[in-house]
Design a protein that fits this description.
Blueprint lengths: L1 E9 L4 H14 L3 E5 L3 E3 L10 E10 L3 H14 L14 E7 L4 E3 L2 E3 L8 H10 L12 H14 L1
Antiparallel strand pairs: 1-4, 1-5, 2-4, 3-4, 6-7
Length: about 160
C-alpha cells in the first residue's frame, strides 16, 4: 500500500456536496481514506473571473500505482459530470495527486509531486492540517515549512 495525498476543489454547483460526493466515490473505489482536512473557501488561482472554490486535502492509502490512481480519479471526475474547461477555469470537481508516497513521477500526463503545489495556498493550507511533517521529496522540506515560506512571499508584496 502507498500513502498518497490528494487535493480536491469545486467552484460550481453545491461545492461542499461536490467534495463530499468525490470523497465517497474515492472510498467506493477501494481507496482507503486516512485523513480529510477541513474545507476551505479560497479565491480562484490563475483565472480570476470565476466563483470562489471550496478546497480540501485527503490522505489515502492505495494498492494502485500512480497512473492507475490518476485514471481512477479522472473517471470519478467524469462520473460527477466534470466537463472540459479552460486551464484553471471553473469546475464541478477537480482532484489532483499532490504526493504519491515519496515517489518522483514524470509522465506526459502526470507529474508528482504536483509541480505547482508549493505556490498554492489552497493546496498547502488544507494539507498542513493533515500532514504538517510530510517531507516534500524534491525540496526536502516539510509541508508546514513550505506554507510558512509561501506566506512570507505572499505577504511581502
Amino acid at each position: 500500500m502507498t500513502k498518497a495525498f490528494l487535493s480536491l476543489g469545486s467552484n460550481l454547483g453545491d461545492r461542499i456536496i461536490n467534495l463530499h460526493h468525490a470523497i465517497e466515490l474515492i472510498s467506493n473505489r477501494g481507496i482507503s481514506t486516512i485523513g480529510v482536512s477541513s474545507f476551505y473557501e479560497t479565491e480562484p488561482w490563475g483565472y480570476k473571473g470565476q466563483p470562489p472554490f471550496i478546497n480540501a486535502a485527503l490522505e489515502v492509502e492505495v494498492a494502485l500505482n500512480a497512473r492507475e490512481l490518476l485514471s481512477t480519479l479522472k473517471s470519478i471526475e467524469l462520473e460527477m459530470g466534470r466537463e472540459e474547461s479552460p486551464r484553471w477555469g471553473p469546475r464541478l470537481i477537480d482532484i489532483d495527486i499532490i504526493f504519491f508516497g515519496n515517489e518522483i513521477v514524470s509522465y506526459p500526463e502526470l507529474t508528482i509531486p504536483h509541480p505547482l503545489m508549493h505556490k498554492r495556498l489552497f493546496v498547502l493550507e488544507p494539507l498542513v492540517e493533515i500532514a504538517p511533517d510530510f517531507i516534500h521529496p524534491l525540496f526536502n522540506k516539510n509541508i508546514k515549512t513550505l506554507l510558512e515560506e509561501l506566506n512570507e512571499k505572499h505577504y511581502k508584496h
